[in-house]
Amino acid sequence: MRTRTSVVAAAGLLALTTGCGAADMTRQASPFANAQGTKSLTLSVQSWVGAQANVAVAKYLLERELGYRVDTVQIDEVPAWDALSQGRVDALLEDWGHPEEEQRYVKDKKTIVNAGDLGVTGHIGWYVPTYFAEQHPDVTDWKNLNKYADRFRTPESGGKGQLMDGSPSYVTNDKALVKNLDLDYKVVFAGSEAAQITQIKQFAKEKKPFLTYWYSPQWLFKRVPMTEVKLPAYKEGCDADPAKVACAYPHTPLQKYLNADFAKDGGAAASFLKKFQWTTEDQNEVSLMIAEQKLTPEEAAKRWADSHESTWKQWLS
User: Fold this and answer.
1) Which residues have CB under 8 Å from 7's CB, separation 6+?
2) What is the C-alpha to C-alpha distance for residues 246 and 239, in angstroms, rounded to an integer?
3) Rounded to two decimals, what is the model's pTM?
């Protein structure tokens, strides 16, 4: 979705499934990025729908209220930091925690600056459908997962239980967790957030048990209630060595980052993005409109903005 996390699908799939229309700019610079002297900027779009919601609303208001030309490009999580440092994009509005990149670009090179909290706290975890947890309450303790491994078995997982992850490009501790907690499971990648959602919905429709890597905030919880499996408690530093991780994922206040030159010279746009802060409920409201109601990001942003003027007016002051 992320402190050493989650969540990023293929750019082409995003364009096909959401109508965002963001180009795959992993290897290409946007003509609007770092465009000094012009009222234009480029926002990096992560592939999960919550990140799309942030960008949709920011883009809509920057264009409508401040008269900017806003370009959007989709880049995977770690390459987005490289692009931001190089000025190929001006802002990243939802980061789930990349300490190595933060050390390199914010603290050492000083080419990126932290633009503050998004206002949303992210959390990754393992989840089972609530209908299964109600029938088997002890499944919510990781120590009992092996007892249910055969119930979570799929053709893709072979003789083991399946732990479904999203895209291989997401940063996840799951393979290490399965190994270090001695669980009879295999991590199987759905390929993207969209593919994972499709599979979860299908399992739920058939009332089948499943175990999945998932995260909040996420609109899908409103459609498919899920209950978190308690992993060993997270303690600061317990995930420092990726190969030895044997603890839960942390709760992470999601951060915004700006290219350092843009933060200094970006004028009203940079000021707006620093002040951009909303709630989990706000993000989920827009995400639901994009992913479930099939509104375009612009339509969803307009609908949200029309009913939340008191919130976004503060970002313009």
Assistant:
1) 1, 46, 47, 48, 96, 166, 167, 170, 193, 215
2) 8
3) 0.79
Three-state DSSP class for 226? Answer: strand
How confident is the model over 106-127, as pLDDT tens digits?
Answer: 999 999 999 999 999 999 999 9
Q: Which of 285, 310, 308 is nearest to 49 (CA)?
A: 285
Report cis status (omega within 30 of 0) of the bond before 209.
no
Cα angle 304-302-96, degrees, rounded to a multiple of 5:
60
Whole-number Å distance between alpha carbons of 5 and 249: 9
pLDDT of residue 261: 98
Q: How far apart are CA 129 and CA 155, in angstroms?
A: 20
Tell me if 171 sits within 8 A of 163, measured CB to CB. Answer: no
Q: Are 123 and 7 in contact, with CB atoms under 8 Å apart?
A: no
Q: How far apart are CA 191 and CA 164, in angstroms?
A: 10
